[in-house]
Write a structure and sequence with these properties.
alpha/beta
Length: 271
């Protein structure tokens, strides 16, 4: 079993926490856009209260450990590893609860290049525990607004984890999927789950729009978020998101494997 101390050391060595690759400039830009209710950073969330930039900076300092000094405007952002560890513990507790009930669960990621393996291992473990890992609307076309205009993607599943692909660009062993912040894929998946089964997942696990989109609809949602993803932490503060784990969400995929082991052990789901 990976100890808390060993995982803390790994978080810092892999730059999942501590000084991270996400820059202060990028984070502050996201807070400005969120305060302006820009849908690109709301990720499907409809905040109940008005959040200005100063409010968001205080929230992110509390949730992630970033500096709350508005005069600090450049350099790498910082995530407190203790907050990451606490988030992973809460994340594992939710997985343990859903496994005990053998409840249906939906996994989805907007970061398939980095996080697919992390979620897939959790999906495998919950499936082995008797949970139905849902895969609704596979192959469905979804029109998503991007910085290049509206593009059509296909909803797909890999080892029980939803992602979107650009039609015609994927070959086996190649492109794992597209990066997206959109909440549209989870909305399509949830609508299809109701149509096919007559019920919804009790838990959605993922990131970006998968978490905020599900949480906004009243479904329990947990996920991972970087310092430039304030929507998940606002959702957690307002009660739409159950757990938002602060960490860098774009390091090498192999660096998330110790987190997988830690979460599965804490959730009593290790094989």
């Amino acid at each position: 079993m990976l100890s808390t101390g060993a995982l803390r050391a790994h978080l810092l060595a892999a730059r999942l926490a501590g000084p991270v690759a996400t820059s202060r400039e990028v984070s502050l830009r996201s807070y400005r856009l969120f305060a302006a209710r820009d849908p690109r950073v709301l990720l499907g969330l409809h905040p109940e209260r008005g959040w200005d930039e100063r409010d968001l900076l205080r929230l992110m300092a509390d949730k992630c450990g970033v500096s709350d000094d508005p005069a600090h405007v450049s350099g790498p952002d910082v995530i407190d590893p203790e907050r990451t560890l606490a988030g992973l513990d809460a994340f594992a507790e939710r997985l343990s609860n859903v496994a005990a009930r053998r409840a249906p669960v939906l996994f989805g990621t907007g970061h398939p290049h980095r996080l697919l393996g992390f979620y897939a291992a959790l999906a495998d473990a919950l499936s082995a525990a008797g949970c139905a890992v849902l895969t609704p609307a596979q192959g469905r076309c979804i029109d998503i607004t991007t910085r290049f205009g509206v593009r059509t993607y296909n909803l797909d599943y890999v080892r029980g984890v939803a992602l979107v692909r650009e039609p015609g660009v994927w070959v086996r062993g190649g492109e794992p999927g597209a990066h997206t912040h959109s909440p549209l894929p989870v909305r399509v998946a949830l609508e299809a789950a109701v149509a096919a089964h007559g019920w919804l997942p009790e838990l959605v696990v993922g990131d970006h729009g998968w978490v905020c989109g599900a949480g906004q609809l009243g479904i329990e949602a947990i996920g991972l978020a970087d310092t430039d993803d304030p929507a998940l932490f606002v959702g957690e503060a307002e009660g739409q998101v159950s757990v938002a784990v602060p960490l860098d969400d774009a390091v090498r995929s192999a660096y998330y494997r110790p987190l997988t082991r830690y979460v599965l052990n804490r959730a009593c789901l290790s094989q």
